[in-house]
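Quick check before the chapter quiz. The format below is the same one you will see on the exam, so make sure you can read both the input and the output lines.
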Amino acid sequence: MKKIITLAVAAVFAAAAVSVNAQVAGPGQKSNGVVTQRAKARNFMRSLNLTKAQKQRIKAIRDQRKSQMRMLRMSKQAPAVKKERAKAIRMDSQARVLAVLTPPQRARLQAMRAKFRANHPALKRNGGGKIKK
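Here is the expected output.
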């Protein structure tokens, strides 16, 4: 009888542990809890209170950037040339997005970036998101 009770209690604890460890992915999240790029873009647009026209212009800029980066990855240029060209594409798209924003939205974006940098000091600013060691 003691063995049955012990096994039943162990089964309950095992089931509880499994249910606690099981992570259900929410919208815009992978099963490991990582937020997807699409969700980040959606949160970015929500936090800046963009108009419909601004959202459309920024989406067009992002789509063009994506296309340019895809073409760059497929090119047969030297890696150093690709790296410089990728940086130029990123800088150009960032400048074009900033041109779409109003002054209060730009200020909000700068505050968001400052907060991100403060919360992620290990990230290099010019290393493409690679972590310093």
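If your answer matched, good. The longest helix spans residues 52-74.
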